[in-house]
């Protein structure tokens, strides 16, 4: 059961259109000076909820993870083809009509609109600050993915097209916003799904750490003053601890809102109240014959899997949690149920080996080998599967796992990276000790030295499938390299995505990114 905040009591639906869509759909029907009896608290709920579509194992997640060495959605015979949408993301062959790009762009702009809309109806100082945080968070994602941000300064006349902010303008805006609203956000909040000062600090850390990348993606630059700000902000974030040994998956569990010691900002999910598609984190990877049956889709690559050493709990363990109502828990089978699933799979209900569906005599052995298209004997079994969010068996509808956006271990890893890139105060020895403090709690041996390449691998191990891998690979200069099943990118245009065609069609201030 969730601990309710005043937000959980109010239900409302996000308006499903982006800022630029308004011009196309509504045009002159929207006049200046909209009036009405509108509750800003309800609008704020809509703003929070508008993040669900882009974030929860869909859209934004696909752009940030399926494009990397950590995840792939192979076409399995006739399944998971979708006109090549998934293959294009992993192979970096997308165009401006890719549905994931269109849905993510529209979803993030919807969040920007919904947050701005709160400000029109006399919100309290805290409500306004929370709305401005949501808007800045969505803007950061847009500039990360596309390099520019459509932004409407005033919602009083929708006939005026949004202007386009450059990467530098967008980052300057976000920094100014966070510094302005910091005093009006709660210093902490009992639940991580309410924006607070620490969430704003993490967003600022992300901006300062990536500023030199967003303005120069082929040759990222790291200003010492920006790195020092990352270190200073990390030192200001108090009240969190790295999960204790054996508790890594507490951060993603159905009761992570009360159990996690790391989660700084999350998206709210509660059965019977509101939420998003967190259960897609299970459905998209699990085989038809698992419990419950999934869609037998996405996987990771063996080269990424091999970054984990034996004994590292992040690689996978049996995780005992109350919402597991299967025999795996009630009969004490203790079969691995989270992390990376590789090899012969065993039923969490019968404790017997599982078989594939077709043919039913084939053992269900998730293999290390995978190709962008699979068929025949490997159709159902190719690829190591990943379960990051323990499945909420106790709920019949909306699953209760809050979706993790910011975690304390990410703060520590960003601090270590900033120190290695020249941020002060701090030494290489301190950065190494910081990373090892995380590894110790994960059951991993101490590192003896810390380089940027080693740190990138550690970020991969700690933050896998949380929506940061693409951003990390670009910042570390690795995104264009050949992958296990993809060739090297021949053109650096792929360091940003193509702006969706329909968005350009309705906003003359938007110009297509170079090369598309």
From TrEMBL:
Its main location: membrane. The keyword Ribosomal protein does not apply. Belongs to the SusD family. InterPro entries: SusD-like_N, SusD_RagB_dom, TPR-like_helical_dom_sf. It comes from the Bacteria. Residues 35-209 form the SusD-like N-terminal domain. GO terms for cellular component: cell outer membrane. It comes from Dyadobacter soli. Keywords: Cell outer membrane, Membrane, Signal. Pfam families: SusD-like_3 (PF14322), SusD_RagB (PF07980). Residues 268-515 form the RagB/SusD domain. It is found in: Cell outer membrane. This is Starch-binding associating with outer membrane. Gene3D superfamilies: 1.25.40.390.
């Amino acid at each position: 059961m969730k601990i309710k905040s005043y937000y959980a009591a109010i239900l409302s639906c996000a308006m499903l259109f982006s800022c630029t869509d308004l011009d196309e759909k509504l045009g002159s029907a929207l006049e200046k000076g909209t009036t009405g009896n509108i509750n800003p608290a309800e609008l704020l709920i809509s703003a929070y909820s508008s993040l669900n579509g882009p974030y929860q194992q869909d859209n934004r997640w696909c752009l940030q993870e399926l494009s990397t060495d950590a995840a792939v959605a192979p076409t399995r015979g006739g399944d998971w083809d979708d006109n090549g949408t998934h293959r294009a993301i992993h192979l970096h062959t997308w165009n401006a009509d890719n549905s994931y790009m269109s849905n993510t762009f529209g979803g993030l702009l919807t969040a920007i609109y919904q947050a701005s809309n709160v400000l029109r109806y006399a919100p309290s100082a805290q409500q306004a600050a929370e709305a401005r945080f949501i808007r800045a968070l969505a803007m950061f994602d847009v500039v990360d993915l596309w390099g520019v941000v459509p932004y409407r300064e005033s919602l009083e006349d929708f006939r005026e097209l949004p202007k386009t902010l450059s990467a530098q303008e967008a980052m300057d805006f976000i920094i100014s916003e966070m510094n302005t609203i910091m005093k009006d956000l709660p210093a902490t909040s009992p639940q991580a799904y309410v924006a607070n000062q620490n969430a704003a600090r993490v967003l600022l850390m992300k901006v300062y750490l990536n500023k030199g990348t967003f303005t120069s993606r082929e040759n990222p630059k790291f200003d010492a003053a920006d790195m020092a700000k990352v270190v200073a902000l990390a030192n200001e974030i108090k009240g969190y601890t790295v999960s204790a040994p054996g508790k890594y998956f507490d951060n993603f569990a159905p009761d992570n809102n009360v159990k996690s010691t790391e989660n700084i900002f999350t998206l709210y999910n509660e059965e019977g109240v509101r939420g998003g598609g967190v259960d897609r984190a299970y459905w998209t990877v699990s085989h038809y014959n698992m419990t419950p049956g999934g869609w037998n889709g996405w996987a990771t690559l063996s080269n990424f899997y091999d970054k984990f050493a034996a004994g590292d709990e992040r690689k996978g363990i049996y995780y005992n949690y109350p919402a597991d109502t299967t025999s795996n828990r009630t009969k004490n089978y203790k079969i691995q149920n989270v992390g990376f699933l590789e090899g012969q799979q065993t039923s969490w209900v019968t404790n017997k080996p599982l078989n594939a569906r077709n043919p039913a005599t084939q053992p269900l052995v998730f293999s290390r080998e995978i190709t962008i298209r699979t068929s025949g004997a490997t159709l159902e079994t190719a690829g190591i599967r990943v379960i990051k969010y323990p499945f909420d068996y106790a709920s019949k509808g909306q699953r209760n796992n809050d979706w993790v956006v910011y975690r304390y271990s990410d703060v520590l890893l960003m601090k270590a990276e900033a120190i290695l890139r020249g941020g002060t105060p701090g030494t290489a020895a301190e950065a190494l000790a910081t990373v090892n403090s995380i590894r110790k709690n994960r059951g991993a041996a101490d590192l003896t030295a810390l380089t940027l390449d080693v740190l990138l691998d550690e970020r991969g191990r700690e933050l896998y499938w949380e929506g940061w891998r693409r951003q990390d690979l670009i910042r570390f200069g690795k995104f264009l390299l050949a992958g296990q099943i993809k060739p090297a990118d021949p053109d650096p245009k792929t360091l940003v995505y193509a702006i969706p065609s329909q968005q350009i069609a309705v906003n003359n201030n938007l110009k297509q990114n170079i090369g598309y």
